[in-house]
Design a protein that fits this description.
Elements (H helix, E strand, L loop, with lengths): L1 E7 L10 H4 L8 E7 L2 E7 L12 E5 L2 E11 L2 H10 L9 H12 L9 E9 L4 E6 L8 E5 L2 E5 L2 H5 L7 E2 L1 H10 L14 E2 L4 E6 L2 E6 L12 H18 L7 E4 L4 H16 L5 E7 L2 H4 L11 H11 L2 E7 L1 H6 L1 H8 L6 H14 L4 E3 L4 H5 L8 H4 L19 H4 L1 H17 L9 H30 L4 E3 L5 H7 L4 H4 L7 H6 L6 H4 L12 H15 L4 H5 L2 H9 L12 H17 L3 E2 L3
Parallel strand pairs: 10-19, 14-15, 14-17, 15-16, 17-18
Antiparallel strand pairs: 1-3, 1-9, 2-3, 4-5, 5-6, 6-7, 7-12, 8-9, 8-11, 12-13
């Protein structure tokens, strides 16, 4: 994986500095490069995964006297098949790097090339013949692509910090940006970069920038189709698609492992990977996560009924992997809050983010690539709003349990909370209305489609963003086999009664992969990413918050201290998903204040 950045200006007023790439160097510690184009500049930082010797970027190919230059971030999982197709079209790839396959694919197939790609990617290509740049993002948005049109320039970068480092994009925040932070974060509106002039290319979107300006279009849409299948047939199709996706993503020229929590999703990925490794005569490495003090302080809840530790080691023994338990020190989880905010370019999931930064640093000591089980719940129906319509149709995003909580601790003249609530609520209704569906859908199928649509576009998008930013901040690539668009396209159209057979969430997935898993894991209830239960962490972040309130930062000016004091003195309450409670609210406020300070955020109340 890598970072990409650049600027195109047809008036050739190129002022973009190398700082765009420099601030994202953590994403690509192995190599860097710059290409000066007739109309701009491309910059690249490389994390070498495939063909380390020959994958330098920016990469330029000359075809029929015309030059094509690419900067690319991602992995193509059907590169071998595409290499064969390209050879039949007269192209002879010179490397084993999929960067070249993407570039030759564009030369051979034009702007429709992305329709042939199976993978995670974001890239930009300068086409000398057409005098344009063509750019695209993968179908589910696993890899990021931010851009801005300012002063006649098209600027793009893998992270927001890259755009800000150009000197042409400012960290200007308006009401809608602030409302996203207070009511929606760590999720954000599709296409938004939070700051006024920053946009994010949508998943499944591509575009062209030429002398006439910029044009964007969707090359992929999630199809709603009528699928008449039985439970066994659906299970067989899922087993085939998922096994193929996992095995494709095990190709790597650098050390690879899996993240194994002992839950259904990560154990499925690990089971297929372990079998693949045995075929190659090797043993799979696996990792699970724990926190200092959790064994003494863990309390079972409806959302987190068990810890992962025993399940992870049991699954590792059953599958024959070489397992490592990484235990995060409490002070490190607190200290990494700042790095996590820098990695995400905004306040995110507090210690849920910061712990992943720490874990990835430990993984990097031995491995560069890991596979993870993200996205299964959003695709197969693992959350309660899939089968509880009262949660889904509550006029707000169902995973946000108390929409007004964060806004309530800020000065009302600053946040305009009722307007903010109405704005985000309307965004929710607009998203529900745009959900692909069929007139013949039953009420349960319509609910399942809407739940999938919201989950994929918001909840899953925030988890993918978290995984990409925290891992790449440490020079680790995380692959997510469940986020293969072929799986989503199929499962989206399977009747809900099959996906939720006998009232069991993700019943289709369990049926499909039952032969690979021990009963203890196969029937395990969902348990989310682990968090710290150590009361020492709460004390640490409380002290950090008090320290920041003593400074003349955003919080000191904007916070209603008495309201915050009363809130913190009350019962612990979750406010986002299953993990974000009072300690995470304290930590999120710390991240918010730090973000305002470090990014020199300029808030304009309009």
């Amino acid at each position: 994986m890598c970072s990409i950045s650049g600027e195109i200006n047809w008036r050739k007023e190129i002022l973009c500095s190398g700082e765009m790439a420099a601030v994202m160097a953590r994403r690509g510690p192995d190599d860097s490069g710059t290409a000066i184009l007739p109309c701009g500049v491309f910059q690249h930082n490389r994390l070498a995964v495939m063909d380390p010797e020959n994958g330098h970027q920016p990469m330029t190919v000359t075809h029929r006297g015309r030059q094509y230059t690419i900067v690319y971030n991602g992995e193509l999982y059907n590169a071998r098949e595409l290499r064969t197709v390209l050879r039949t079209l007269g192209f002879v790839p010179k490397t084993n790097c999929d960067t070249e396959i993407v570039l030759l694919g564009y030369i051979a197939l034009g702007e429709a090339c992305v329709e042939a790609f199976n993978g995670i990617f974001a890239f930009c290509i300068y086409d000398e013949a057409k005098q344009q740049v063509y750019f695209a993002r993968d179908r589910l948005g696993v890899k990021p692509f931010f851009y801005a049109n300012v002063r006649g320039s098209f600027l793009f970068a893998s992270e927001i910090k890259g755009l800000l480092a150009s000197g042409k994009v400012s960290a200007d925040l308006d009401r809608q940006g602030l409302w996203q932070l207070l009511f929606l974060a760590p999720a954000k509106l599709p296409g938004s970069g939070i700051f006024k002039d920053v946009r994010e290319l949508l998943p499944g979107q591509c575009g062209v920038f030429d002398r006439d300006g910029m044009r964007l279009w969707q090359y992929w849409h999630l199809p709603a189709e009528e699928l008449r299948v039985g439970a066994d047939e659906a299970a067989e199709a899922v087993r085939s698609l998922l096994t193929d996706a996992i095995r494709r993503q095990l190709r790597s020229d650098v050390p690879l492992a899996t993240l194994l929590s002992g839950g259904l999703d990560s154990t499925i990925v690990t089971a297929v990977a372990a079998e693949y490794c045995r075929e190659q005569g090797t043993v799979l490495d696996t990792y699970s996560f724990e926190y200092e003090g959790n064994r003494e302080n863990f309390h079972s809840t409806l959302f987190q009924p068990q810890g992962d530790d025993a399940f992870a080691t049991y699954a590792a023994d059953y599958l024959g992997t070489r397992h490592t338990v990484l235990t995060a020190p409490t002070d490190a989880v607190a200290a990494c809050l700042y790095d996590a905010a820098l990695a995400r370019d905004m306040p995110g999931q507090a210690d849920i983010d910061s712990s992943l930064v720490w874990f990835c640093r430990q993984i990097k000591n031995r491995h560069t690539v890991v596979l993870s089980g993200e996205c299964a719940d959003e695709i197969f129906g693992g959350y309660p709003w899939f089968y509880r319509p009262e949660m889904l149709y509550s006029d707000f995003f169902p995973w946000i349990h108390d929409p007004m909580l964060r806004a309530s601790v800020f000065d009302e003249t600053l946040v305009h909370s009722q307007q903010g609530y109405a704005f985000i609520s309307q965004c929710y209704r607009d998203s529900i209305a745009s959900c692909p569906s069929l007139p013949s859908d039953s009420s349960s199928m319509a609910t399942a489609r809407a739940a999938t649509w919201l989950s994929v576009n918001y909840f899953m998008a925030s988890l993918l963003e978290r995984k990409d930013r925290m891992s790449m901040y440490s020079g680790v690539e995380v692959r997510v086999p469940f986020a293969d668009h072929r799986i989503l396209e199929y499962v989206y159209n399977v009747p809900w009664e099959i996906k939720y057979d006998k009232g069991v969430e993700k019943a289709l997935l369990r049926r499909a992969m039952s032969a690979l898993l021990p009963p203890r894991v196969l029937t395990r209830k969902k348990s989310p990413y682990p968090k710290t239960h150590n009361p020492l962490y709460t004390q640490m972040v409380t002290d950090l918050l008090k320290s920041r309130l003593d400074q003349n930062g955003f919080l000191r000016q904007a916070l209603r201290r008495e309201k915050l004091k009363a809130l913190l003195a009350g019962e612990n309450t979750t406010w986002f998903g299953q993990l974000m409670g009072t300690p995470q609210l304290i930590a999120w406020l710390i991240q918010l204040d730090y973000w305002f300070e470090q990014y020199h955020v300029n808030y304009t109340d309009n």
